Amino acid sequence: MSSVAIAPPRPLVLGDLIAASRGRAAHAVRDVLLVVGAAGFVGALAQISIHLSFTPVPITGQTLGVLLAGTALGWRRAAAAMALYAVAGVAGVPWFAGQTSGYASASFGYIVGFFFAAAACGYLAEQGADRSVLKSVPAMIVGEVVIYAFGLTWLALDLHLGAAATLTAGFTPFVAGDAIKAAIAAGLLPVAWRMVGPRRQNEAGLIRSSSSDLAASPDSAAMPPES
């Protein structure tokens, strides 16, 4: 007699609650819509933009969208959404800041950072980091740090800037606003979970747990039908 250890399913993210009781086809449609919707959401927030005379990097609302998309969708869907946002924007969809498109060389590192930041926030959300403000704040800080790591490095290399000039052009004008956006995102996620309510969370969790058990069972595919 053999036994199979079944790992417990990961905690749900908000996106998992949509059409949770439906089948795989509905889940696939849901995931596509969430990816496209999240990319469009970030593109919409990019139109809230202020261009500064001393830097090619505009002040936008994109960061808020990236943080929310990451934590609400989970890392796979969030990464796909940010990849779609970047690729479609370069290909010509005018949803970068100021209804622009194409490759914006100096500031493109921030868009690359969106991909990794959304994935990081999504991964942390899948560990339960979106359920309380106390856990959400560190997750948002991680996302912000990742965005700046890519954005500042890209900016410095593209414009051949030193450390001080890079911080002046790519960090100092934005950090206060990004802190506010991170605080908003960290507050919205726990509120959303409270609005959903424990009953729906439990129902979706039971559905996922049941599906995981069936998929992991060694006898589920080999057992003959009862007569």
- How much beta, percentage-wise? under 5%
CATH architecture: Orthogonal Bundle
Overall number of structural domains? 1
Total number of beta strands: 2
What is the terminal-to-terminal distance? 24 Å
Could you write a compact summary of the structure shown?
With 227 residues, this protein is mostly helical. The protein is 64% helix and 2% strand.
What can you see in these coordinates?
The chain is built from eight helices and two strands. It is mainly alpha-helical. The protein has one domain (14-199): Arp2/3 complex 21 kDa subunit ARPC3, CATH 1.10.1760. Strands 1-2 form a two-stranded antiparallel sheet. The longest helix is centred in the middle third of the chain and has 27 residues, at 133-159.
List the helices and strands and how they pair.
Elements: H1 24-46, E1 49-50, E2 59-60, H2 62-73, H3 75-91, H4 108-125, H5 133-159, H6 163-170, H7 175-196, H8 198-216
Antiparallel strand pairs: 1-2
Any descriptors?
Arp2/3 complex 21 kDa subunit ARPC3, mainly alpha, two-stranded antiparallel ribbon, disordered C terminus, 8 helices, about 230 residues
